[in-house]
Amino acid sequence: MSQHAGSPEHESLSAPGLSTLLRERGAATWAAATSHPMVAEIGAGTLPHETFRFYFEQNIQYLHCYVQGIALAIAAAPDRASQATLARFLIQITDVEIPANLTFLTRLGGSPDRLPAQLPTTRGYAGHLLAAAGSGSLPVALAALLPCQWSYGEIGQRLAAGGAPPDPVYADWIAMFADDGYDDLVRASTGLLDSCAADADQRAAEAAFDAATGYELAFWEMAYTRGASDGGA
């Protein structure tokens, strides 16, 4: 029997996944985060190095909490396939992004041994991730974790399409998120959320995703203002 455009079978096949629904409901905040002035200046290679160094000083500390959040999500994963996807996610952070962040910080004149205190946005974002990931619900954990990974993939792809900036620090940072391997990981992670959507408390997932997207925007603003948006320079 053929499936008609109005049939329930067709609708179920074409219906957007939970990841798409979550992103669409927070589209304005998502757009503000991924097109933030700091992102634009990274793409142009015009961001002051001092500002990028400030970003890495906070982001390194955030990423350590992000690792803990992914580990909690792995603990909530129901099967080996889910665990394998999340293990790839974890390795990307521990073996690629944290070492790269440490290298970028050093290239910009900073020191991993002299990191400043976490600012309120960094602490708040980390606390949100750990609370959501520790809820025991894999969909809620993923909803909190995905805005970071997913938005950086989008940023990397868009900035790379505009051509590499002349400053190698910015060109190298963009390249880290623009390659096909990163895009494949994003698809795997969003696909995992979609596959476990039937087990989701959708309101809790929406709240987790919305809060994380808001924190992404706040984190860019915090770094761009070198802490002024958090109440101190």
From TrEMBL:
PANTHER family: BIFUNCTIONAL TH2 PROTEIN, SI:CH1073-67J19.1-RELATED. It comes from the Bacteria. One of its GO terms (cellular component) is cytosol. Residues 29-225 form the Thiaminase-2/PQQC domain. Gene3D superfamilies: Heme oxygenase-like (1.20.910.10). Transmembrane segments: none annotated. Signal peptide: none annotated. This is Thiaminase-2/PQQC domain-containing protein. Pathway: Cofactor biosynthesis; thiamine diphosphate biosynthesis. Pfam families: TENA_THI-4.
